[in-house]
Amino acid sequence: MVWRGSNRAVYKGKNAAHHQQQQTKEEMENGGGGASFWTQANALLRKNVTFQKRNVRTNVRLILFPLVLCVLLVLLQHYIDEQLDKPQFKCGCACANNRTEDAECPDSQKLCGVQYSDSTQALFCAIPKPFQWPPFLQLPAPPNRAVRTPSLPFSDLPDVSCRRTASCPVTLLFTADDHSFGLNVSENMFMSAFNVDSSDLMGSLAMNVMGSESSPERSNFIEPAISSGLPIYFLQNNCTQTSEFSFPSIAGKQLDIRCAQALNLWRNSSSEINSELYKGYTRGNTEGRTNEIVSAFDFLNSNENRYNVSIWYNSTYKRDNGFGPVSLLRIPRSVNLISDAYLQFLLGPGTKILFEFTKEMPKPKTQLRLEIASLLGTLFFTWVVLQLFPVVLTSLVYEKQQNLRIMMKMHGLGDGPYWLISYGYFFSISAIYILCFVIFGSLLGLKFFTLNDYSIQFVFYFIYINLQIVLAFLTASTFSSVKTATVTAYIGVFGSGLLAGFLFQFFVQNTSFPRGWIILMELYPGFSLYRGLYEFAQFSFSGNSLGTNGMQWQDLSDSFNGMKEVLIIMSAEWIVVLFAAFYIDQVLSPGSRKNPLFLKGFQKKPTSSFQKHSIRRQGSKDFAQMEKADVIKEKEKVEQLLVEPTINHSIVCDNMKKVYPGRDGNPDKFAVRGLFLSVPQGECFGMLGPNGAGKTSFINMMIGLTKPTSGTAFVQGQDIRTHMDGIYANMGVCPQHDLLWESLTGREHLLFYGRLKNLKGSDLTQAVEESLKSLNLFHGGVADKQAGKYSGGMKRKLSVAISLIGDPKVVYMDEPSTGLDPASRKSLWNVIKRAKQDRAIILTTHSMEEAEVLCDRLGIFVNGSLQCVGNPKELKARYGGTYVFTMTTSSDHEKDVENMVRQLAPNANRIYHLPGTQKFELPKEEVGIADVFQAVEAAKRNFTVYAWGLVDTTLEDVFIKVAREAHAFDTLS
């Protein structure tokens, strides 16, 4: 049965109890009696802003990191630009007088153009009318031409000895469904003689089949076959001329023309050709050389009425570094060659498709510019953005490690305000950081930022920082140490960047790699971030090179642009991870009482008071043999309150138990064994007990840090198993260990917790000032000193002040005076005395003096169970009904002292003995104080008495006696 409210009429009976439950439920739904949602949010926001002010230096260092990186990239860009401004990266020039390159040649006599440039310089020349070049086949160099080897044992291949004379033929392979058709067509591929007509140079060259072993370039403004100085081969079925040919120059280059025999070889199937090509390139090595085939042709089902051909070519000449265009391949001549052979087969030798020349498109004069931020920025900028993750994660883990989250929750902070403000707080920090990063890069002129559409950048960074924040919330649930979280986070940051830069990027650039695997890898947020930055870099690099814009919205529809899929993946992950993080926080966070399914129907319903009473009567006899009358009376009182609740009792504990499962073969540990306790309003209940008795475990259950194994407790009428959120609104806690933000001052702590208790304006200011003054934290600047600089005693006083601010109805104080000097302890006692007038306080302590001064009732807790309950005088009377008599004499008169004591009290008990000194317990009912004085005076006449004393029983004696009896009982059991 539950109840609450200081001004509510007392209801009795089952119907009244039901009515009270309904009222409590309605109040819970209306806020639980605590501060409103926005009041809590305002309190947390103000605390976070104040906390942020204390970390200005850290924030400046954080923001300086991307600034320094951008500056370094700008300096590196300046250096690269200076290097690219040198002649080797400009269009080539020569003096008019001798047509030779001369650095001292006056500008008026310089002639610049592609004809004076090497293959690199030609890329930057203005070429309004590109040169026409003869079409060439790609031929292997003489040492690499196909020969017979152990892996290629075909008898129609030439012997390896031809390599010594550089006379190996170039090999072409053929196959077809119709063998005779394939042979007839292949015979028409090459002319029997080399003929050149100087009046129609290009036309005559096109009639011959030319080839070169030079590697192709990325453009065709200068044909490498002509500019490289390597020989040019014309292909014939039989070479009868082996000397060099006299040939007119092309573009000022005198050509070295040689004959190369074309060897057409037949193979039975395309798979046989494929195997030979593969073995020849990868495993047909002789002295480190390959056995390369020029081309291979499969006529498939071609005949006189159908033309259907597959062509193999060596694609390894395509050089791709991931930036800019790839190398051109000399494939068109192979297509033209086989097409001409087919036409000649059909229409005679005079029929050809004339492939006269190849040429590039016209181009203006250009200058090489490398955007370093685009080339190197992808990896570095990934680290810049990922650096936010450890910042958010460590902040969340710090609150968890220091129990600050549960401390805020115990003082009334709900999950909704916490998530709203914490999320918004981290988002604001991340947004400011990213904004500064983009602004720095843009102001410094990095094309990575200035060329790409800012709206796309905004959307990308907005989605990612949100994803990063929810990932931090999710990951924080797996860490309990800030150091471990920090190290792990930074390893993840640098590891993600390196894996993305040296592995993931390779897969992205490899067009043959399955796209599905790319998308799967992008599910990892670090790779998604890298892919987005990589796309920005690609577009800014090409835009800077071509003088165009970077990425625009219409570019997202490009199938080769991965930005669209990255935005979709990150958006979906943001939503999924947000719900996962919130779910885990609600189910697994300290103080949570929610069912994993979030369904009330699946929660275990508390057993009614009547049912519990019946069950206990039938079977609950734990420790019945050692329960004293006062403990039994307290149990009966609790049972009566559960049946007929009143508004006077703020705390009612009903058979609470806490059992920690045994590990490594050890038995279970019973921390709390069936505790029944009631604490009315206006009472301070002191809980005494030796270390490990279970006092802190009891407090932890009451404040929501741990769940009871069985039983429950009602605080202000609300069940701690199901309504802790409502209990927190009216609860104050001074934990055993101080839970404070080291960078916040004492005043700021009290302002924050005061706002959580719904204090505002002048009421808040007054409450804070009074708390500081009452605990001597006001003068000397202590109130405005950061808590991390407080002494241990000052921290304890601040923790007590926090527990009392806002007028909570129930307060738990776990050893509040630990570490205080005597004067501060007296001052603290006065504060607690005044505070207990209108609230229930449960206090644990090891100081018997403190217990006597502060506590209206005491309970001694031993081995998890309550041994006795009562006020200090009652306990001393009940368990200490003796005087303690002490006398010191010479050793010779010890027997005389013992005889004297026996005459005073026959049932006296000697409890202490050293040579000459003895201590006895004298039952009060057997002796009077006057009798003791008379006996001592008589003894002094018979022997020398050095010292003697008579004292009443102290609370400490009671504590020791009860503890010994409890341990003795457990030992016997």
Automatic annotation (TrEMBL):
It comes from the Eukaryota. Signal peptide: none annotated. The chain crosses the membrane at residues 62-80, 372-398, 418-444, 456-475, 487-508, 566-584. InterPro entries: AAA+_ATPase (IPR003593), ABC2_TM (IPR013525), ABC_transporter-like_ATP-bd (IPR003439), ABC_transporter-like_CS (IPR017871), ABCA (IPR026082), P-loop_NTPase (IPR027417). Residues 1-32 are annotated as: Disordered. Keywords: ATP-binding, Membrane, Nucleotide-binding, Transmembrane, Transmembrane helix. GO terms for molecular function: ABC-type transporter activity; ATP binding; ATP hydrolysis activity; lipid transporter activity. Its main location: membrane. It is a multi-pass membrane protein. SUPFAM superfamilies: P-loop containing nucleoside triphosphate hydrolases. SMART domains: AAA. It is found in: Membrane. Belongs to the ABC transporter superfamily. ABCA family. CPR flippase (TC 3.A.1.211) subfamily. This is ABC transporter domain-containing protein. It comes from Clitoria ternatea.
